[in-house]
Design goal:
The radius of gyration is 21 Å and the shape is globular. The longest helix is centred in the C-terminal third of the chain and has 21 residues, at 289-309. It is built from 13 helices and eleven strands. Helix 3 crosses helix 11 (254-269). Helix content is 42%, strand content 19%. The termini are far apart. It has a six-stranded mixed sheet, sandwiched between helices.
Length: 315
């Protein structure tokens, strides 16, 4: 009788975990093609493809500062066949200002942090602003004149801009876009005066003499942009970084999560991946699941305070 019951239990146990991966995996990316989220997602997918013989496909799901992709992820079957690469801003910011399918770091299974960076403010080379001090001075003299783009409302880039305006005592117009693919043409076309963007996105434009970086929102100067001052050294204590991490739906079998983690860890440990990231001004920043969840909770509470101060916190 016990044997019959055990056989019945095994018959109804999900076999997918033991045989994983037996079909293609979808890697969601919460921003449009061409931006850094998309670039990192495709590099990781390329780096892990040997571990996924049925294939791993990057699918872009832009919208709501990355929250559209995360919401799709948390509604997916917890079987390891849908994962998401997301900036942590979609988790610690967007979840506190919108009604979403997820709320806190306990509503999904973060299994590895991949990279980290700090945003910067840039202008096009034709801009009259040669320094961030000049831009701030003009903003102070002409409140609401300067338009600054970001990859979306509620992103870390947006909140760095809000913090800068708060600490510098100026008012600029925040213009949210659906990622770099939209904000950079707008800046180059003269539709906005400045934008907040990622070092990796800016490097090519700076090397091509199309944009100029004015300030970095990080603790120390960026090695790729050594001549660019930090906000802190100019007297504005603004330095909120951005992490890119991989997540699975909550209740995904742990052996599947481990398989995903190990594949991704091997990919980011490849010297070629690290070299590609370094060339874009991005740091490889490995953190495994539970340590990462604790870090997300810390950032979540920190951003609660910031969002409450600027009136964006959803009660």
């Amino acid at each position: 009788m016990i044997r019959i019951a055990l056989c019945a239990l095994l018959a109804f146990s999900p076999p997918a975990a033991a045989q994983y991966p037996e079909r293609p995996v979808t890697l969601l990316a919460g921003y449009p093609p061409g931006g850094l989220v998309d670039v990192v997602a495709r590099l990781v997918a390329e780096g892990v493809k040997a571990k996924f013989p049925k294939g791993i496909a990057v699918v872009n799901r832009p919208g709501a500062a990355g929250a559209v992709a995360v919401a799709e992820l948390v509604r997916s079957q917890p079987d390891g066949y849908t994962v998401v690469l997301t900036p942590h801003s979609a988790l610690v910011i967007a979840a506190q200002i919108n009604d979403l399918a997820y709320k806190t770091p306990d509503d999904y299974d973060p299994f590895i942090n991949l990279v980290a960076y700090y945003p910067m403010i840039a202008v096009r080379t034709e801009s009259p602003y040669q320094s961030i001090q000049e831009l701030i001075a003009d903003a102070r003299a002409n409140p609401g004149k300067i338009r600054v783009g970001s990859p979306g409302e509620g992103t870390s880039s947006h909140l760095n801009l809000e913090e800068l305006m708060h600490r510098a005592g100026v008012k600029m117009i925040h213009v949210p876009y659906a990622g770099w693919g939209q904000s950079s043409p707008s800046l180059l076309g003269g539709h906005i005066e400045a934008l907040v963007a990622q070092p990796g996105e800016l490097k090519g434009q700076v090397d091509g003499k199309r944009m100029r970086v004015l300030v970095a929102f990080q603790p120390q100067r960026h090695p790729v942009f050594p001549d660019v001052p930090t906000a802190k050294e100019l007297g504005w204590d603004v330095a909120n970084g951005v992490w890119y991490l991989l997540m699975a739906p909550k209740k995904t079998p742990q052996q599947v999560v481990k398989y995903l983690h190990d594949a991704a860890k091997a990919a980011i440990e490849d010297p070629q991946f690290a070299g590609t990231m370094a060339a874009r001004g991005i740091d490889v920043d490995y953190r495994p699941g539970e340590a990462l969840r604790a870090d997300l909770w810390r950032e979540y509470r920190l951003h609660t305070d910031i969002l409450r101060r600027i009136g964006m916190l959803k009660q």
